[in-house]
Amino acid sequence: MLIVTKEAAELLKAAKVGGQAPDHAGIRIRRGAASSEPGRVAVGFTISEEPDPNDEEFEQEGLRIFVEDALIEPLEGRTLDVRDTSEGPELIFC
């Protein structure tokens, strides 16, 4: 299962609140545009009120998270965290 750090959950919760999403909404991790780097998977994040039928759903740090079925295996055992950059915080998978 994907692990979400407290810092990553707080950043995603802030995005949810900023988007004025309902309290029950969650964050959906989905495939993004194709990565230009071989062996890398591009992902995107959206606010969603409910998971898609084949999504994996779980809760960590008080945040509902939905993972697109195609990403369940690639993200297995990974950690979603935050790192500070000169442009602000950035979500990363470790």
Detail the topology: elements first, then pairings:
Layout: E1 3-4, H1 6-18, E2 26-31, E3 43-48, E4 56-60, E5 63-67, H2 69-75, E6 79-85, E7 88-93
Parallel strand pairs: 1-6, 2-5
Antiparallel strand pairs: 2-3, 4-5, 6-7
Can you offer a commentary on this structure?
It is a single chain. The chain is of the alpha/beta class and 94 residues long. The chain has one domain (3-93): Hypothetical Protein Aq_1857, Chain: A. Helices cover 21% and strands 39% of the residues. It has 2 helices and 7 strands, in the order βαββββαββ. It has helices spanning 6-18, 69-75; strands at residues 3-4, 26-31, 43-48, 56-60, 63-67, 79-85, 88-93. A 4-stranded mixed beta sheet has the order 3-2-5-4. Strands 1-6-7 form a 3-stranded mixed beta sheet. Strand 6 (79-85) and strand 7 (88-93) form a beta hairpin. It is globular and about 40 Å long. The mean pLDDT is 89.
Summarize the structure.
The protein is of the alpha/beta class and 94 residues long. Helices cover 21% and strands 39% of the residues. The protein has helices spanning 6-18, 69-75; strands at 3-4, 26-31, 43-48, 56-60, 63-67, 79-85, 88-93.
What structural keywords apply?
globular; four-stranded mixed beta sheet; 7 strands; three-stranded mixed beta sheet; 94 residues
Give the mean pLDDT.
89
Major β-sheet, in short?
4 strands, mixed
In spatial order, strands of the major sheet run 3-2-5-4
Residues in helices, as a percent range: 10-25%
H-E order: EHEEEEHEE
CATH overall fold name: Hypothetical Protein Aq_1857, Chain: A
Number of E-type strands:
7
CATH homologous superfamily - what is it?
A: HesB-like domain
Low-confidence stretches: none
Strand percentage lies at 35-45%
Question: Which CATH architecture would you pick?
Answer: Sandwich
CATH C-level name: Mainly Beta
Radius of gyration: 13 Å
